Hints:
The structure holds three protein chains of three kinds. Chain A is mainly α. Chain A is 75% helix and 1% strand. Chain A has helices at 3-32, 38-42, 55-85, 92-106, 109-123, 130-154, 158-166, 171-182, 184-200, 203-206, 226-236, 241-272; strands at residues 45-46, 51-52. The longest helix of chain B has 36 residues, at 14-49. The chains are: A mainly alpha, B mainly alpha, C alpha/beta.
Amino acid sequence: MTERLFTWTIWLSAALVAAALMWVIGDLFSLGAAHLSLDFLLSAPRDAGRSGGIGPILVATVLIIGVTLTVALPLGLMAAVWLAEFTVRGDALGNAIRLSLDVMAGVPSIVYGLFGNAFFSIYLGMGFSILSGGLTLACMVLPVFIRTSEMGLAAVSDAWRQGASALGMTRSAAIWHILLPAASPAIGAGIMLGIGRATAETAALIFTSGYVDRMPESLLDSGRSLSVHIYDLSMNVTGGDTAAHASALVLIALIIVFNLLAQWFTDRWLHRRQLA
Amino acid sequence: MILSKDSSLYHWNIDKALAPLLLLAGLACVAILLLIVLFLSREAWPVLANGGWRAFVADNGWYPLEGLFGLLPMLAASLAVMLGAIVLAGPVGLGCAIFLQFYAPQAVRKSFRLLLSLLAGMPSVVLGLWGLTVLVPLIAQWQPPGASLLAAILVLALMIVPTMALAGAAALSSVPADLISGAAALGMGARSRILYVAVPAARRGMLSGALLSMARALGETMVLLMVAGNVVQYPHGLLEPVRALTANIALEMAYATDLHRAGLFASGLLLTLLVLVLAWLAARSLRHD
Amino acid sequence: MNKHHTSPFTLGSVDEAQPCCVPAPQLEVRALSVSYGDRKVLDTVSLDIYRGCITALIGPSGCGKTSFLSAINRLTDMLPTAKVEGSVRFDDEEILNAGVDTLQLRRRIGMIFQKPNPFPLSIRRNLELPLREHGVRKPRERSERAEQALRDVGLWNEVKDRLGSSAMALSGGQQQRLCIARALVLKPEILLMDEPCSALDPMSSAVVEELITRLRGRYTIVIVTHNLAQAKRVANYAGFFWMTERVGKLIEFGQSQRLFDAPTHALTRAYISGVSG
Lengths: 276, 289, 277
């Protein structure tokens, strides 16, 4: 293969991927953009979702993500701080925890759905509910978040730990005021990854938070997430394709918005605490 | 001034409470994993206890309502999709990685990386939707029914190509620059430098990325549910519909009871095992330094 | 001896006072040994640190001088393999005992590190955070003490308009002075300094050195330094460390004038004459 042919092949493969993405996004827009409107975002679905909107579904999605973050963030941060600050290399307990996390990260999402169904929905009696779905997603999101945050904390300079200790500061104070803010970019990135994964998740939610497309009134109500709605519209509802495409556009926009929010949160709040 | 603990100046040390609390959080993670293993096994027990694994292999076909749990065709379908996807996405991903690392002009590099991240973040249900509404009819024009092994392979390849590309680019960027400039000093052209020096040096990271992508393909549900056709049969042609293990679970969980349900859980355990083996191989290939 | 062009320091010159004519020991170190795992780095060191004086610890790298300092403020507690034996009495209290409140100890004995390590926070927060952690509740009191500390180290005029900006943006010399201010703000009694000037450029080094001399009398200072000329300039007492059989030992200790001009030990004589300041 000559030099020129090689170069062309490389450019071609990049162009191929770019073109594929354009094709997908283009099709989503052409098939769904027309269906978008403010009314679509706010009102309830009618006629099995063929008309009407996705209001209750957006609410359910946000609630599920809310549950996920509320559980995964504190638990994950605490575990990450433990791993980064209180274990040494070769620590048996630390290795056991890290191994567990690595294994958890590998479990397929449908299997998480099975687990969530068996444990949260049936054994703990939550039934098909937003709570059950959110907790299942929290288990899914935890491993990556903890590892990312742990790496971020481990990368923080030891000089500050020593300096804080030499000033007679408690470890808690050093962690809270100095180390966590210093690791905030990595923690923020972990949050973004977690939100992205949770919002896009479908298989784990089908058998934990369910299919109901009414406005949820409590966390114990069943609720349909946006991704599940797209699945239902495209597979089970004939003529639901347009609404499905419009919902897909909203879902992508939602993921982008969550990522931007997490970025803003990281920059303004976590970072700002360092100054002034 | 008295320095001892009994002094009135000694304040309650918050650190004493901190370590145990944090450890509890860490142990909660182990507890979750144990719960997962426990509950999956518990649900799958009826099938496993009856010498179930043998049923998976020996039974003639998957007819759970009649007590037949032969899942080899579905396992074969899952593996076929995974292999097909990696065969497609591997070279293309490598090409993108090389592009990102060696050929992309500075202005394009950032945008292309963004593009890859966007594709990587695309929910699988959205890609499945596109596959269902655009790709499947396209294939159906060539030969019905359209929902087929090929459709699944194509969409899955699209899903995993950004991971391969980004992992490959990361591996290439960690190749020491003097290795490549040494090759240039020997008069090797760009093609040779990349193919015979850089890529081999980066092969561990690339292999790891490939194994992880394969694990992802094996565990993927929504795309397979939507575009693969869901007919339980051995994949004997690219344009034939097939049903993957993951899709099977999603399809039948809604109405499965008793032994059938246990069978689905057992297939879930099998799936997890396969994925973990791939993930372990991926981690090992990185560690072999 | 002091350069009297516009000096930024508000600490008055204490040359006129008699800081050390009747020195009383503030720290009594007896048979102090430090090991990391099974590697001993410091073997049975005994000396006294006198109140209000500057004590310099000199000797080549690796003789355990840093470990000596770390043992005194119990920073060795942070390292799981570190073992400290012997006795260190601070105002007649044994500080190596298990029941000692190390947080209070480190308020009273401050430490300055070789490489300046201001926290990645604003200048203001660098000073006020330790105060808050040690129970100074009123914001007004915190900012007053912070200002005083900054004045004491001569930084006030340089940073008073940007207290909210990041401390990492300061120059090396400014960062080190900020670290000293951060230690001073807690009103310590002893300052442990581990080669405070070695990571700085010559001009900043001179400024920090002048600051250190002005701290004499108000604070007790123990300074580890490789710079013999600096030790000669600032110290009242000096201790010479050397490595024998791979372990650091204290060879000679006494009033710095005598140690530098007429050392008793042959090793000390060799080191001082061989390493010209």
